[in-house]
Prior knowledge:
mainly alpha, 10 helices
Amino acid sequence: MNTSIAFPLLLTLLAGLATGIGSAIAFFARRTNVRFLSFSLGLSAGVMIYVSFVELFAESHGMLAAQWGETAGMTATVLCFFGGILLIGAIDRLVPSFENPHEMHTVEEMERHPGQRRGGLMRVGIMTALVIGIHNFPEGIATFMSAVDNPALGIAIAAAIAIHNIPEGIAVSIPVYYATGSRRKAFLLSLSSGLAEPVGALLAYAVLLPFLSPVLLGCIFGVVAGIMVFISLDELLPAAEKYGEHHVSIYGVVTGMAVMAVSLILF
């Protein structure tokens, strides 16, 4: 196992800071490239789904079965998988529907003048950043722990998470910009919401890494697989659909799976 933490931490940081890319797109792009976003979100979902079932779930089962036997190992893997789904699902329930950070926004909204009070808009922006930070926390743990065991796998997961952080950056930036009129404040708040991922990685380093064993790592992989599948089905694919490009998003899913399959074979 690769015990170096510098590279996993860097990957997690870069994935989290992708919210800043979304903020920059909101401020400097003239119009939203919905086909590109739809394809990218689909690609991210394809990577996560393929990695979860082909790599993470299989590794979890292999590690736990080696320690506890086939039946007990598979049972533990399944429990960890659905435990991961329950964990991220419980976090998702904390998001009020009217402030859902996964509500899609477009660059064109920057030219509109909503009738809401500025204080209300600022509240929406701050709440969105906070909720995205809560969502990003377990993602940071997932990226870090995957990269510690397998750097190539960590790169794939970090890239997929970075792609899905881009629309979240837009979601934070727009209401904050409306409320303050400051691109700088909107950009910084958007960027800071992504810093929950490296914080999650640091927690994993401080709490989990010292006690890392095949059993703990197998359980973590099972939980991470569940988290990734939930994110793909609950966030990424619906987001791609909301951008209005159904077939493009599906092409992205298949492409993401194919790219991940090839990378796992080669590396």
